[in-house]
Specification:
- It is a single chain.
- This protein is an alpha+beta fold and 619 residues long.
- Among the domains are: 26-168, Acyl-CoA dehydrogenase/oxidase, N-terminal domain (Butyryl-Coa Dehydrogenase, subunit A, domain 1), CATH 1.10.540.10; 187-310, Butyryl-CoA Dehydrogenase, subunit A, domain 2 (Beta Barrel); 470-611.
- Helices cover 54% and strands 11% of the residues.
- The chain has helices at residues 6-15, 36-46, 63-81, 85-90, 106-116, 134-168, 171-182, 312-348, 369-401, 405-440, 452-462, 469-480, 487-506, 510-535, 539-543, 546-569, 576-592, 596-606, and strands spanning 94-96, 99-101, 186-191, 207-210, 216-226, 235-244, 255-260, 262-265, 268-271, 274-280, 290-295, 302-305.
- A 5-stranded mixed β-barrel has the order 4-5-12-7-6.
- Strand 1 (94-96) and strand 2 form a beta hairpin.
- Helix 8 packs antiparallel against helix 9 (369-401) and helix 13 (487-506) runs parallel beside helix 16 (546-569).
- The chain is globular.
Length: 619
């Protein structure tokens, strides 16, 4: 009997297999990556980006220059950058003959981003930049990261490294490195981590020996250094932490150095005794290599001091904090791209029928309540993340260029307070959002023919990059909320209070306003209790539940963002669908997530000790 394989062949066609059995890309071509209307709404209705043009540093700009920049980046991201994402994920760099070989598309993409002005958009005109507000740069770079986060990674790292040299380098160091980096001829990295030290930077052992020629001889090993070798540009400059011989122990003895892969001698570039010891094979971010480096195997690795001796960690915090916000934007972007894949899939995919019906045509799966639940949760996480990142970026702009010293100081307090949240929430909850995207795709979700599984892999790295999220929780509770006698937390409470008043005046649901007010009071009270424990020397009592504290704090902050958006939506010139969607997401977050604050506060207060008292051999 002849067997009918038509159903099997149809299934293969649906999965995207051609007769050659080679899978084709199954991403939805109409995926916007980032919602343009959302960006415009946040910029001009929620965050008042135009008001930044009144500040001294941004008076040369206007809404027109902001929109021109963002529009050009949008087009490039969708038309040129997105098509390279899947090939780079499938063809990661290889380590061969002592060098790293990256995807051949990268040099042209990097040059295009340089030509767009992405690298120096926020830098002063004096160094070739456009002095664009951080808020505008954040919104524009989100498109680049959503299209191909690895390709953008080279830009982000170079910007951070160049800014370090710009801020702390001597005239000689700036002349040696800065122009070449900002013009796109050389890239940069941050080289902090060592195999034996990990995130414990006080334990680094890389050494720097001074010479009479103005440079230092560097000796040591680094690991997990992203983008430290490639053929995209001719050279890479590693901003590296090392210890000058005789320096104090711990973090007080760390200095910062610029160490190029190639150094200049007699007008030509020669090897600088920087070698790649190996490449780490990652689950995500596959387009940019993570490397183990050796400095000074032959005793001739030269580095140039950036900043004052023994002040390297203080200098590096500038790049680390900028990188934390960048990772937060990556977290948003990765979740956003996956959310729109899921949204478009749910609108198109037909399966089953509405409850109570057994016949008739199948309906799009968006008609099923559980799919709408997953989509609304993604929307709440994704759009709440971008609102938070926009808010933090605006504080960065005000901290740098605020009209008065008081304005700048207040903005700096809020920027530092919210940076750990801006790094962790988009990554941690973004991973949850990415998982939901896979779930909505069902059986197709866990196939590599569709993009959600790749986005999910990428997202996991964001919870680890630039200090794991657990480290961020200790920074938030142990340092930020307690600094300056609790001034940052008081400033945040005032900001949330202004939002609640605005929301009431706009006619938002009084229940939502009241719930947020109560949450602010609860978070303030538990923070004071934990701070008092710390003052008595009870470190475990204060920090034992720092992760729960971060979860509680972030939940409050995102509730604030959603109430702010709901208030703005009442008067903004936006579509009815966006207004109703904003109301739904604000209601969802405040009614389903804000109640968790009570439980999390109770855990912090009780100092539930199951894992605190656990001993190593119990595991």
């Amino acid at each position: 009997m002849r067997r009918d394989n038509s159903r099997g062949k149809y299934a293969l066609r649906v999965l995207g297999f051609a007769q050659s059995r080679q899978p084709k890309r199954m991403a939805t071509q109409s995926n916007p990556l980032v919602d343009d209307d959302l960006v415009d709404f946040l910029l001009y209705s929620v965050l008042d980006a135009e008001s930044l043009c009144k500040l001294g540093g941004y008076r040369q700009h206007s809404k027109q220059t902001f929109d021109l920049y963002i529009d050009s980046v949008r087009r490039f991201s969708r038309q040129d950058l997105l098509p390279t994402y899947k090939p780079m994920d499938e063809e990661p760099p290889v380590f061969r003959d002592g060098r790293i070989h990256t995807h051949p598309a990268l040099p042209a993409l990097y040059k295009q981003m340089i030509d767009l002005g992405v690298l120096t958009a926020t830098r002063p005109e004096s160094v070739g930049g456009q002095q664009m507000p951080m808020l505008i740069h954040t919104m524009a770079s989100a498109y680049l990261m959503a299209a191909n986060l690895s390709a953008y990674g080279y830009i982000g790292l170079t910007l951070g490294a160049g800014h370090l040299i710009e801020a702390f380098g001597s005239d000689e160091v700036k002349e040696r490195f800065l122009a070449r980096m900002y013009e796109g001829e050389w890239t940069g990295t941050m080289a902090l981590t060592e195999p034996q030290a990990g995130s414990s930077l006080g334990d680094i052992s890389t050494t720097a020996t001074p010479t009479d020629d103005g440079h230092y001889l560097i000796k040591g090993s680094k690991i997990f250094i992203s983008g430290a070798d490639h053929a995209i540009t001719v050279n890479v400059v590693n901003l590296t932490l090392a210890r000058i011989k005789g320096a104090p122990e711990g973090t007080k003895g760390i200095s910062l150095f610029a160490i190029p892969r190639l150094r200049e001698e007699d007008g030509r570039l020669v090897p600088n005794d920087v070698t790649v010891a190996g490449m780490i094979h990652k689950i995500g971010w596959r387009g940019i290599p993570s490397l183990a480096l050796e400095f000074g195997d032959e005793g001739d690795c030269r580095g140039w001091l950036v900043g004052e001796p023994n002040q390297g960690l203080r200098c590096m915090f500038q790049m680390m904090n900028e990188a934390r916000i960048m990772i937060g934007v990556n977290g948003f972007a990765t979740a956003s791209a996956a959310y729109h894949e899921a949204r478009l899939y749910a609108l198109d995919r037909r399966q089953g029928r509405t409850p109570g019906r057994r016949d008739g045509e199948q309906v799009p799966i968006v008609e099923h309540a559980d799919v709408r639940r997953m989509l609304l949760r993604q929307k709440a996480i994704v759009e709440g993340s971008l609102a938070l990142l926009g808010t933090v970026s605006r504080y960065a702009d005000l901290a740098a260029h605020g009209a008065t010293a008081e304005d700048r100081e207040r903005a700096d307090l809020l920027l530092n307070l919210l940076t750990p949240v801006a790094k962790t929430f988009p990554a941690e909850r973004g991973f949850e959002s990415n998982v939901l995207s896979v779930q909505i795709h069902g059986g197709y979700g866990y196939t590599s023919e569709y993009l959600p599984e790749a986005y999910m892999r990428d997202q996991k790295l964001n919870t680890i990059h630039e200090g794991t999220n657990g480290i961020q929780s200790m920074d938030l509770l142990g340092r930020q909320v307690m600094s300056k006698g609790g001034a940052p937390l008081r400033a945040l409470a005032e900001e949330i209070g202004h939002t609640v008043a605005r929301a009431r005046e706009a006619g938002c649901d009084p229940e939502l306003c009241g719930a947020l007010e109560e949450a602010v009071t609860r978070v303030g009270a538990i923070t004071m209790e934990l701070g008092q424990r710390g003052m008595t020397g009870d470190a475990d009592g204060m920090l034992g539940h720092s992760w729960d504290y971060l979860d509680m704090f972030a939940t409050l902050v995102i509730g604030w963002q959603w109430l702010n958006m709901a208030a703005a939506a009442r008067t903004a010139l936006i579509s009815e669908a966006r207004k109703r969607g904003t109301d739904a997401a604000a209601q969802y977050w405040i009614r389903t997530e804000i109640p968790r604050i009570s439980l999390l506060a109770s855990l912090c207060r009780s100092n539930e000790d199951s894992y605190i008292k656990a001993e190593a051999d119990w595991f």
